[in-house]
Design goal:
By secondary structure, the protein is mainly alpha-helical. About 75% of the residues lie in helices and about 0% in strands. It contains 18 helices and 2 strands. The protein has helices at about 5-10, 15-45, 55-80, 80-100, 105-130, 135-165, 170-175, 175-190, 205-230, 235-255, 265-270, 270-300, 305-310, 315-330, 335-355, 365-390, 400-435, 440-475, and strands at about 485, 505. The chain has a two-stranded antiparallel sheet with strand order 1-2. α5 (about 105-130) packs across α17 and α9 (about 205-230) packs antiparallel against α10 (about 235-255). The longest helix has about 40 residues, at about 400-435. It is globular.
């Protein structure tokens, strides 16, 4: 069947489409942090107990992390554009419910719904980007912008959350999502044109859905319980054992069923596997740092919520510069591992500076340069990582491959917050015990212990980023971008360059 001219031409509305895809991604990413700043006010107004306040964060993380693979598969089945729009409208409705919450149950339910619709939205957004931008250089620019948003959106959430909480009301941290979602959904409906033939219409793998969802929920919840109950607590250990059994059973099922939820070919390709692993580890380090710096600036330094948000601006500037000016410009010239590996190492250098944190540390002399290095490094590494998430993928698997990179980030974020916070808390307790005898000012001792705990946890973050760099440099072996053939024939499509006559030539990262 002859190729039509339309098949080979890029979508004329692709840059407009990027605006709406990026807007949706920003909404999902910043929602992960915007609620943190509003949480004390919401807790007071709704009468949420100290024991239950973590569920405002955890309910979102459990639903989002647990349902991401299912969301990616739905995107491949329904079509990415339809899934994207449904996810946006559902997210807006859940946000309205959260903003109008009158009690604890209504708040927690709305957060779980936000997570569920976010799990539809996030993989659909990334896979739409992958199939919309087919030119190598344009693809690099598009993923540069997307990577900057994915990396910097959390810090933007801190700024926006500070403004909304301080000058309006905590409820606006939910209501602000509604215009974002409506504009993105309307734009997507009228502008985005999904290429034909990329759907996977195989029946849903129900056992895979159940096992993966329960396994990921148990894993995320296990780290949450470790933070509050300790690593040796029976509930914590039980959740980790259950997660290992469920995810092991999931891998076994996926290797046997005819139409798996997560085809193992998506994971076994070494470049994609390297991205999922290195990015997940890097996010562990970054999310832990967001938590420590927020508490350090507000509690130790006495910054207001708005000042704290602005204090993160250098990191955002670094991420945007790293993604769009370094990563995007070099991606078409050098192999991705030479951007990701050094990027993670530069970020580790920024973290290393922060291990010197003390009560009297200067923002301009220590925190600002550390944030710039961290932002530049993570921005440079995030951009090729986002692009490689769909490296050489068949169109029928684009949604689930996109879901995997989101899953690695979400699970990494949950693990990072719990793991590093537990390390910091243990170091703080040990510091107080060893210095209590000679202390004359209990309040000063507590502040010194807190900062010591942060610095101790940040040392772990340095090591984790070094491991991320090592994985990126050794496991990812694809060369610089080239052009190969990706079949667009739906469920039966292959990746052979000598495939059927009506295959579509799409530039992707070449081996």
């Amino acid at each position: 069947m002859p190729k039509t001219a339309d098949t080979l031409l890029p979508d004329p509305n692709r840059w407009k489409a990027l605006v709406f895809i990026a807007l949706a991604q920003l909404m999902v990413v910043l929602d992960a942090t915007i609620v943190n700043i509003a949480l004390p006010s919401a807790q007071r107004d709704l009468g949420i107990s100290d024991a239950n306040r973590q569920w405002v964060i955890t309910a979102y993380a459990l639903a989002f992390g647990g349902l991401l693979l299912f969301g990616g598969r739905i995107a491949d089945l329904w079509g990415r554009k339809r899934t994207f729009v449904v996810g946006l409208l559902g997210f807006a409705a859940a946000s309205a419910l959260g903003g109008a919450a009158s009690n604890e149950a209504m708040m927690l339910g709305s957060r779980a719904l936000q997570g569920a619709f976010g799990a539809l939205l996030a993989p659909a957004a990334l896979s739409l980007l992958a199939v919309t931008f087919t030119d190598v250089k344009e693809r690099a620019k598009a993923f540069g912008i997307f990577g900057a948003i994915a990396g910097g959106g959390g810090a933007v959430g801190l700024i926006l959350g500070g403004f909304l909480t301080e000058y309006l009301d905590w409820r606006w941290t939910f209501f602000v999502n509604i215009p974002f979602a409506i504009v993105a959904a309307a734009g997507a409906y009228f502008v985005i044109r999904e290429p034909a033939g990329g759907r996977n219409r195989s029946p849903l793998d129900i056992p895979g859905v159940v096992l993966s969802t329960l396994g990921l929920v148990a894993l995320v919840y296990g780290f949450t319980r470790a933070e509050s109950d300790g690593w040796a607590a029976g509930a914590t250990v039980g959740l980790f054992v259950a997660s290992a059994v469920l995810l092991g059973a999931f891998v076994l099922v996926e290797s046997k069923v005819k139409s798996p939820l997560l085809p193992l070919r998506v994971l076994m390709e070494r470049n994609r596997g390297g991205v999922y692993l290195s990015l997940g580890l890097a996010v562990i380090a970054m999310f832990g740092l967001f938590l420590f710096l927020t508490y350090y600036l507000q509690i130790v330094k006495g910054y207001s919520p708005v000042m704290t948000g602005f204090a993160f601006l250098p990191m955002i500037a670094g991420m945007i510069t790293g993604s769009t000016q370094i990563g995007a410009r070099l991606m078409t010239r050098v192999a991705p591992r030479y951007l990701m590996g050094p990027g993670f190492l530069v970020a580790a250098l920024g973290m290393l500076l922060l291990t010197q944190l003390e009560i009297g540390s200067s923002y301009a002399g220590l925190i600002l340069p550390a944030q710039l290095l961290l932002g530049l490094g993570m921005g440079t590494a995030f951009m090729p990582a986002m692009s490689l998430a769909t490296h050489g993928i068949e169109p029928r698997d684009a949604g689930v491959a996109s879901a995997m990179v989101n899953t690695s980030q979400q699970v990494g974020g949950a693990i990072g917050t719990a793991l590093l916070n537990t390390i910091a808390a243990s170091a703080t307790t040990a510091y107080v015990a060893s210095h209590a005898a000679g202390a004359t000012n209990a309040q000063l001792l507590q502040a010194q212990a807190m900062v010591h705990g942060y610095a101790s946890a940040i040392w772990w973050a340095v090591g984790i980023l070094a491991v991320s760099a090592t994985i990126a440099l050794t496991l990812i072996n694809t060369g610089r971008p080239g052009t190969t053939t990706v079949a667009a024939g739906g469920a039966g499509a292959g990746t052979d360059a000598a495939a059927a006559e009506d295959d579509v030539k799409i530039p992707v990262i070449a081996h």
